[in-house]
Amino acid sequence: MVYPATRLRRTRQSEWSRRLVAENRIAISDLILPIIIIEGENRRESIATMPGVERVSIDLAGEIAANAAELGIPALALFPAIAPELKSTDGAEALKVDNLLGRALTRIKRDVPGIGLIADVALDPYTTHGHDGLLVDGRILNDETVEILCRQALAEAEAGVDIVAPSDMMDGRVGAIRQTLDDAGYRDVQILSYAAKYASTFYGPFRDALSTRGLLKGDKRTYQMDVGNGDEALREIELDLAEGADMVMVKPGLPYLDIIHRIKTGFGVPTFAYHVSGEYAMLRFAAQAGALDYETALLETLLCFRRAGADAVLTYGAIEAAKRIKAG
Ligand code: PBG
Predict the structure, then answer these.
(1) 271 to each of 6, 35, 138, 175, how far by Cα in Å?
(2) Which of 101, 149, 167, 277 maximizes ligand 1 atoms within 8 Å of its Cβ, making it the mutation to test the pocket?
(3) Does an H or E element contain 249, and which?
């Protein structure tokens, strides 16, 4: 059938009809809110490169968590901004059950039991060199790092995490973490693998938020993926699934929709996207300059993640998006 019998504009003529033929929607249940935590009580700090996002103390994070739960957001991803004096070359602070992250997990789990808690497994918030693993003679050691990551994951489980999210890109860490958690009786702690994580410049504002940008020695290209590679992402996914990942993530998000699509069609597993700090900042700064409307652009972005095949999206705009979705 061709024009004039076929007119694709017909179904677009009214709101009800457009709704009827809509193929994808973004729902509040697809959103994950990242929160950046600092020490103290009733403390909040703005982040120059992430307008609208603040570092907050645990008590305020609890309020945000309650608000998110009330809106119907299923889960939070907690990131600790660690004080410089607690950082070390081996990131030992990461292994303490009652470190900043651990206390945040325990408190929010107690006060807002209905919301899922996700935490990164990686050493970068805790190391003086800003790398995700052990740095020895200018090299990131893989297997030695994996051993430490297993202990970090265990500490997070003890603190009350629901989903550990290895974001370090070491080889073999998903299987090792699964084994460690199972041996300790944490069989139901889920693993969300940052499986296809690229060595991206879009993490810049996040590194400001955690004050790791200035610390980072060199770059992360010996463990994070080459931006131009696609087949390799599928191999990363395949391995992480074989090792026991419950869900996989693609990161960054928007410039990598092809990767999300290939993973979702190829594996049919829960596939998450991280709408990372630099992508969020682009929307905010463009809106500040009057180039676009922040919330409208955010909602369009999130819908495009769904169209590409993402089941859920981590976004710093989760609260505003949820409110917009709720308002209809
Ligand atoms: C650290 C980590 C990073 C992000 C999440 N976990 C930064 C990095 O790998 O350097 C980035 C998140 C964002 O940019 O929003 N393992």
Answers:
(1) 36, 21, 34, 18
(2) 167
(3) strand 247-251
- Express each pLDDT in 169-193 by its tens digit: 999 999 999 999 999 999 999 999 9
Q: How many residues does this entry show for the chain?
A: 328
**Parallel, antiparallel or unpaired: strands 247-251 and 271-275:** parallel
The full set of domain ranges for the chain reads 25-327
CA-based Rg of the chain, rounded to a whole angstrom? Answer: 20
Q: What is the bridge-based pairing of β-strands 31-38 and 312-315?
A: parallel
- Is residue 119 within 6 Å of ligand 1 at its C-beta? no
For 66, the enclosing helix (H) or strand (E) is: helix 58-71
The Cα 226–Cα 280 span in angstroms is 22
The Cα–Cα gap between 5 and 199 comes to 50
Give the CA dihedral 311, 314, 319, 322, nearest 10 degrees: -10
Instruction: Give the whole-angstrom CA distance, residue 138 versus residue 311.
Output: 38
Cβ(128)–Cβ(89) below 8 Å: yes
Active site amino acids: 197, 251
For domain 25-327, say whether CATH 3.30.70.120 is its number: no
Residue 278: enclosing H or E segment and its boundaries? helix 277-288
- Determine the residue of 276, 277, 280, 315 to mutate for testing ligand 1's pocket, defined as the one with the most ligand atoms within 8 A of the Cβ atom: 276
pLDDT tens per residue, range 118-157? 999 999 999 999 999 999 999 999 999 999 999 999 999 9
**Whole-number mean pLDDT of the chain?**
98
Distance 197 CA to ligand 1 centre (A): 9
Cα 229 vs. chain centroid, distance in angstroms? Answer: 21
* Tens of pLDDT, residues 284-326: 999 999 999 999 999 999 999 999 999 999 999 999 999 999 9
- Whole-structure pTM value: 0.98
Report d(CA 216, CA 269) in Å as an integer.
33
Task: State the Cα–Cα distance between residues 221 and 224, nearest whole angstrom.
Answer: 5
Q: For residue 124, what pLDDT is reported?
A: 98
